[in-house]
Amino acid sequence: MVVSMPLSPNKWAGIGFSTDGQMVGSTALVTTLSSNGAPIIKVYSLNDRSQQGVVEDASKLTFVGGPPEGHYDQGRTVYISFQVDFTKSTAKANWFLMAFGSLYTDGSIDYHEQRNYFKASIVPGTVVGESAASKLEKKSKIHGSLQILGWGLLLPVGAMVARYARGFDPAWFYVHVTFQILGFACIIAGVATGIQLAKDFQPEHLQAHRGLGLFLFVLAILQVLAVAWRPKKDAKIRKYWNWYHGGVGRLALFLAVVNIFLGLSIGKAENDFKLGYIIILAIELLAFAILEVLLWLRWNRQPRGERSADQGVPGFQFGGSV
User: Fold this and answer.
1) Is residue 112 annotated as involved in ligand binding?
2) 245 appears as a binding residue in the annotation
């Protein structure tokens, strides 16, 4: 079951299961928000109308596939996903209750300000598979992993091959193109999963993340087309093509870093997931700094007469220049 309810900071939203449609005697899933906006879901027994009568007690509900999970989209809507085996639960669901209220200053639940209820019939059966929240989280991780693999690993490594491995001609070009093709394939798959994810999840700042992601996708397509239509080495416009290709490549890789961090923030990624990307980025920046210094040292050692356009310090590449 997936339930969406309006929810604001310092408020609570609950769904209850009752035998007679009354709050007293029911069992409720009550959701509040943590200081960072993450949903906190607890199960309560509503023994009477007093504050002391609202007792945290999950023993009356038997959940299938793990405890309830929640997602908050920052648009004041919370999505709660859970599965209950009522054949093994002492709580009964003849009636569904929905209520909303405020929190006391100590975080405890105040009396409800609004309540809705409706009669329901639960058909016994067996439910298998993942909860909707788990599927949503898995989609989010797949999308993020594909984009990090494409934009955060394969394309930067391919770009460094094009800049620093030109002494291994023509092998560097084929290695470079291989990395870029694999990276572009990951980007396409990541965009596809992102479009599907956006249909189910509408968090705050999604428009910025999606807009920047689509802009980056367009830049990636332009880079692929630029490689297909690159002029010959001795063509007069080859210099301008190099400037364009290198400039777009730098812009794309920089904006990709920004959008990856934005996506990690929107998806509330786990710390291990964030740390993994930060480590990848740090290693790439360190490698770039070391290789760039070595490249300039080698270039400065060359006699001025030998510093031709091809032998000089090449522009930063994203797609090859042979």
Assistant:
1) no
2) yes
Helical H runs in 18-166?
132-149, 155-164
> Cis (ω within 30 of 0) for the bond into 170?
yes
How many Cα atoms sit within 13 Å of 271 on the Cβ side? 0
pLDDT along the chain (322 residues), means of 10: 82 84 82 85 82 77 81 78 80 77 75 61 49 71 94 93 84 90 95 85 75 94 86 83 86 95 83 90 94 83 58 41 40
Domains and CATH numbers, the chain: 2-119 (no CATH), 134-306 (1.20.120.1770)
This prediction's pTM: 0.59
The reply to whether 205 sits in an annotated binding site is: no
User: 209 among the known binding-site residues?
Assistant: yes
Alpha-carbon gap, residue 117 to 98, rounded angstroms: 6
Query: Where are any strands of DSSP class E within the chain?
Result: 2-6, 11-18, 27-33, 39-46, 54-56, 69-72, 77-81, 95-103, 109-119
